[in-house]
C-alpha cells in the first residue's frame, strides 16, 4: 500500500479503539476477521483522508445498530410466494467466481421491474444479499483461496432497458446510496454487457459526473461480453446471458432454471433463503411485514447523477415520440399521395 497508506491505516485503527462497545461489536460482523481490509476500503472511499473515513465508518456502524442490520439475516421475506415475486422482479444472482476467487454477481438491469412488492422488501432483500455475501460468500472464498477476498465482480446485463426504467431511478438511488455509504469499495469491477442505445446515450452524459475512481471500475463490453469475461473467469462462471452470441436475455436460459442465476430455484438463492429461515428464531412466522430500514440521503453528486439520468431519459423519450410522430405523418402523406395519384 505504501508508507503513507500504512500510516493512515494505523491512525484509523487508533481512532477505532475509542468507539463505543456496541459499535465495536457490529464492526466485527462487518469485517468478518479482516479489520485492516475493511478500514482500507473506507479509506479508499474517502481518498485516504483518515478523519473523513473515520466519520464514514462510524456513521455506517451507527446505521447498522439503529436499523438492526446484524439481525437482518434472521428476517425471511414471507410468505415464500412474495419472496419469489421479489426475485422475479429484482434480477440478481451469483453465477460463479473469477480466476482470482472473487464472486461474480450478475444483475439483470434491463429486465428488473421492481414492481411486485413495496420498496421496503426490495431494500430488505438487497441488504440481505449484501450481508450474505460479506458474512458467508466472501469468508468461504477467502478460506478456499488462502488470502483475504473482500470484493466481488458485477456483470450488469442491459438487455431490455426501456424508458419505463425511469420509474426505478428513485429506488435504485436508495439502494446505491446504501451501498456507497455502508458497503463502500465492495465491487472490484463493473462489466456492462448487451448495452442498447438508451444506455449508450445516458452513459455519455453520466460518465463525466463520476469520480475517477468509479469510472475506472466500469467497463462497457461489446455484445454479451463473453470473450472479454473468459479472460478473467471460466466458462462455467459466466452469467447465463453471456453464454450466447448476440444480445442476451436476463430472464431465460436454454439450460433451464439451474443455469439461470436469477431464478429463485437456482442453488445460490435456495441456499440463501434456507439460511435466513434457519437463522430466524425460534421459527419464522407464517407472514411477516417488511424489515424497514432508514433510507440515507444521497450526497450532492449522487443526487445530481440521478437527476441527470432522469433528464436524459425524458429527453430521449421526447425524441423518440417526435421521431414516431414524424414517421406517422410521413406515412400519412405517402398514403395520401398514393390515393391522389
From TrEMBL:
Gene3D superfamilies: CRAL-TRIO lipid binding domain. SMART domains: CRAL_TRIO_N (SM01100), SEC14 (SM00516). PROSITE patterns: CRAL_TRIO. This is CRAL-TRIO domain-containing protein. Residues 79-239 form the CRAL-TRIO domain. SUPFAM superfamilies: CRAL/TRIO domain (SSF52087), CRAL/TRIO N-terminal domain (SSF46938). It holds the Pfam family CRAL_TRIO_N. InterPro entries: CRAL-TRIO_dom, CRAL-TRIO_dom_sf, CRAL/TRIO_N_dom, CRAL/TRIO_N_dom_sf.
Amino acid at each position: 500500500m505504501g508508507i503513507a497508506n500504512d500510516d493512515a491505516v494505523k491512525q484509523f485503527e487508533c481512532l477505532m479503539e475509542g468507539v463505543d462497545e456496541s459499535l465495536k461489536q457490529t464492526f466485527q460482523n462487518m469485517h468478518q476477521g479482516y479489520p485492516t481490509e475493511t478500514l482500507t476500503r473506507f479509506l479508499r472511499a474517502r481518498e485516504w483522508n483518515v478523519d473523513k473515513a473515520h466519520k464514514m465508518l462510524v456513521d455506517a456502524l451507527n446505521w447498522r445498530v439503529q436499523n438492526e442490520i446484524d439481525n437482518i439475516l434472521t428476517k425471511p421475506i414471507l410468505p415464500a410466494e412474495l419472496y419469489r415475486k421479489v426475485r422475479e422482479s429484482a434480477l440478481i444472482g451469483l453465477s460463479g467466481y473469477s480466476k482470482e476467487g472473487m464472486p461474480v454477481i450478475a444483475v439483470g438491469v434491463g429486465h428488473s421491474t421492481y414492481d411486485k412488492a413495496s420498496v421496503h422488501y426490495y431494500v430488505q432483500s438487497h441488504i440481505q444479499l449484501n450481508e450474505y455475501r460479506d458474512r458467508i460468500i466472501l469468508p468461504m472464498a477467502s478460506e478456499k483461496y488462502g488470502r483475504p477476498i473482500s470484493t466481488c465482480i458485477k456483470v450488469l446485463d442491459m438487455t431490455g432497458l426501456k424508458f419505463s426504467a425511469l420509474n426505478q431511478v428513485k429506488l435504485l438511488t436508495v439502494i446505491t446510496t446504501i451501498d456507497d455509504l455502508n458497503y463502500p469499495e465492495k465491487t472490484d469491477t463493473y462489466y456492462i454487457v448487451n448495452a442498447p442505445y438508451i444506455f449508450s446515450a445516458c452513459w455519455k452524459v453520466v460518465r463525466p459526473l463520476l469520480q475517477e475512481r468509479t469510472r475506472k471500475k466500469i467497463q462497457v463490453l461489446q455484445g454479451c461480453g463473453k470473450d472479454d469475461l473468459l479472460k478473467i473467469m471460466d466458462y462455467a462462471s459466466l452469467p447465463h446471458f453471456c453464454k450466447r452470441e448476440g444480445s442476451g436475455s436476463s430472464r431465460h436460459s436454454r439450460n433451464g432454471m439451474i443455469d439461470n442465476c436469477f431464478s429463485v430455484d437456482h442453488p445460490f438463492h435456495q441456499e440463501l433463503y434456507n439460511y435466513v429461515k434457519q437463522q430466524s428464531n425460534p421459527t419464522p412466522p407464517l407472514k411477516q411485514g417488511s424489515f424497514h430500514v432508514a433510507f440515507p440521503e444521497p450526497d450532492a453528486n449522487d443526487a445530481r447523477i440521478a437527476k441527470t439520468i432522469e433528464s436524459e431519459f425524458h429527453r430521449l423519450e421526447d425524441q423518440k415520440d417526435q421521431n414516431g410522430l414524424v414517421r406517422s405523418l410521413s406515412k400519412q402523406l405517402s398514403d395520401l399521395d398514393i390515393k391522389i395519384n
